[in-house]
Specification:
Length: about 375
């Protein structure tokens, strides 16, 4: 039987190492690549070949040439992006050249999802609940929000980790924003409630794998670094939204969304991301539990999406407890690969930066 090969780009991402474990466990030959040294991946004991490619942003042509050469030289059957290089791989020439090997949507679809304003508008046409969203391109456009600015969220249409987002500003903060705003901003109706996230894999518009989780631990700007599962009822609701999103957008690849449950318990999709590393780890654990490969499920959309339980998280974690003083909030932390989580009973995963610096990697 011929061994299949996968090329995983953006190797610096914790998700890349988890995806590598998934493919390795399924018997694939794994190649990890990035434009910088990926220390965490190199620390792994997995049998992985590591490569370094030209910077996609600064040397786009050289990057595309390297990928095309690597696919031919290593006999790559599948290319899985994990970071911003996806936008370079999804360009029309590369998308056409890689064909079915590229596990990502075309550039047009990526832009529709990554543009927070465009996504909110398009998602509504697919029957999905999204907050009222308005383009803001100048200081004059802010005048309409002066009377009730506390009921709106102002943010760039293209941003990561909540950078520059202004939630319910007062009149003075709104006035200060006017000096920095440009035509790449938007205003979105503020939804008060409990935040959650979903992550899913879709194959040609069909949902193949899914995870839903929440977080109470956040960095400045809103990015989370610790996670826990949501209730079964909310999981089912979010899964139905993921199915509708995959179907409406004819999505192909892995995606994530931020959601807020309002006081009535209704879910509002705030924005979409082309990949959600924490979510991948959540259902990767379940796949190991069942002896399956998550990514291979892209070819089998008829298989029911995977759930995940706190018991599975705790049973599959490496049996090593880290000292309390090294953990967030002083709570004991357990380790699973590049992830961290508290008491197994809470199944609270953590991507704490200190864990990469202070601790050796968990044996694969």
């Amino acid at each position: 039987m011929t061994t299949r090969s996968v090329l995983i780009t953006g190797a610096r991402s914790p998700a890349a190492l988890d995806i590598a474990r998934d493919f390795s466990g399924a018997g694939w030959r794994v190649h990890l690549a990035d434009s910088t040294v990926s220390r965490m991946a190199r620390w792994s004991s997995l049998e992985i070949r590591h490569h370094r490619y030209p910077s996609p942003r600064q040397e786009g042509a050289a990057f595309r040439s390297w990928v095309a050469g690597a696919v031919k030289e290593f006999g790559v059957d599948l290319v899985v992006p994990t970071c911003e290089e996806i936008f370079h791989l999804a360009t029309a020439p590369m998308h056409d050249a890689l064909g079915e090997r590229l596990f990502a949507p075309p550039q047009e679809t990526l832009r529709r999802l990554h543009d927070k304003l465009l996504f909110a508008q398009v998602a509504r046409t697919w029957g999905l609940p999204t907050p009222e969203s308005i383009a803001v391109g100048s200081a004059a456009d802010l005048d309409q929000f002066t009377a009730d600015s506390s009921e709106w969220v102002f943010k760039p249409r293209f941003t990561r980790f909540g950078g520059s987002t202004l939630i319910g500003p007062d009149a003075r903060s709104l006035a200060a924003l006017a000096d920095a705003i440009d035509d790449g901003w938007m205003a979105q109706r503020r939804i008060r409630g409990e935040e959650a996230s979903l992550h899913f894999i879709a194959h040609r518009g069909a949902l193949c794998a899914f995870a839903a989780y929440g977080s109470g631990w956040r960095l400045k700007g809103g990015a989370s670094y610790a996670f826990e599962p949501v209730s079964q009822a909310r999981t089912e609701l979010l899964r139905s939204l993921a199915e509708a999103l995959a179907r409406g957008g004819k999505l192909h690849g892995q995606f994530g969304c931020d959601v807020v449950f309002d006081k009535a318990g209704e879910a509002m999709i705030i924005e979409c991301n082309r990949v959600r590393p924490a979510g991948y780890t959540c259902w990767l654990v379940t796949a190991r539990w069942r002896g399956q490969s998550v990514m291979e499920r892209r070819c089998h959309p008829e298989i029911n999406p995977l759930p995940i339980s706190a018991r599975q998280w705790s049973r599959l974690a490496c049996p090593m407890r880290l000292p309390a003083e090294g953990s967030a909030h002083g709570a004991p932390v357990w380790r699973m690969g590049g992830m961290r989580f508290r008491d197994p009973g809470t199944a609270c995963l953590s991507l704490e930066p200190w864990s990469i610096r202070r601790n050796s990697p968990c044996p694969d």
